[in-house]
Input
Amino acid sequence: MAALEDNIVQRATVAVLNCIYEEEFLGFSYGFRPKRGQHDALDALAVGITDKKVNFILDADVRSFFDEVRTQVIRQTVLCESLLGISSIPFNRRACAAGAC
Output
């Protein structure tokens, strides 16, 4: 029963966060968004490179990026900037000075 309750809470949290952040995403952002996936991104890329002059395409593998980044600093940044509407730069400087970075 606890797993079912956790699942309900997680889905509700996702729904609320999607409402908050969906308007923040740029139109060409496809990662982990509702009704957008890798095939949509590839379709957009195909249209973009056939309709416009392209000098280069950059493919970056960020697979291990989140292994190296301090998730607590990211959480505080998101909380400060998005939910509270204040700049997190002073907070991040204090957090780094305290050894969190």
User: Anything to note?
Assistant: The chain has a mean pLDDT of 75. Helices lie at 2-21, 38-51, 65-68, 71-83, 89-97. The CA atoms of residues 28 and 41 lie 8 Å apart.
